[in-house]
Amino acid sequence: MIPNLDVDLLKTFLAIADNGSFTKAAEEVHKTQSAVSMQMKRLEELVGSPLFARDGRMSRFTQDGERLVDYARRIVAINDEAIYAFAKPDLTGTIKFGTPDDYAERFLPEILARFARTHPLVTVDVECLGSGELFERCKRGEMDLSLVTHGCDIVTEEPVRREKLVWVTSTRHHAHMAEVLPLAVSHAGCGWRSMVLRSLDQQQRKFRVAYSTPNSNAVNAAVLQGLAVGAIPELCLRPGMRILTEKDGFPSLGTFDIGLVRKPGKANKAIEALARHVTESLSTLQGQLIAAE
User: Fold this and answer.
1) How confident is the model over 165-188, as a mean pLDDT?
2) Which one of 51, 62, 276, 283 is most buried, by most CB atoms within 10 A?
3) Architecture category of domain 163-255 in CATH
């Protein structure tokens, strides 16, 4: 008979994955380190495979451990979703939620669908604006919760995803081969734009800003039509786009963090619930080092 995975064990396992440490995970789940170690031993017995491997004074996930993180997130999310769906009384009210349009198309459908199933009486008022404006509006109390790109003057205390910024060109055109590289980038002050221009300056490569717009759809359209080369989050890659790599003469642009910002003061239960849904939807599987005990 196939054994059943204990959700409590999986939540401790995810606390280790998210905090990178048995010690910090123990604090988060309000257990002793020895209790956490015993839970992980029990989880390994249930799945029938080692989940952690020693690496000097550190521990890291085994390949099976990394695989389990994704399954664990999905199992815990479904469990919590079922509990919240039957919780009484139902929450009501309106949440003002902000996100850049880059993320709206990719993330919002799943986030809002999940939230609607668990909190059907809560209205989510969505505004798509730049990260800088959303950050300031949250700090002024004009937005309840916003998903923003970390960087420059934007500091998020709740990072939820680390993402690669990649060069992209059209699969049908050759804008990337132009002697003077045409660029489609966001407005001045955007962290991604700064990453792109800094990379080109370091290469001493000739370029011109052919299109400058805060609208991601306009950037994508310029790239897809072969009018310019762009830089977008890897997860936002569209059909008809190709990632440019070092083989094409385009060095890695690096990574950036996506996180949440909130308005000052204590958040109500509806805001906390939406923040939880955002975090769970954007969580990634990462093979990371786990601090030694």
Assistant:
1) 92
2) 51
3) 3-Layer(aba) Sandwich (3.40)
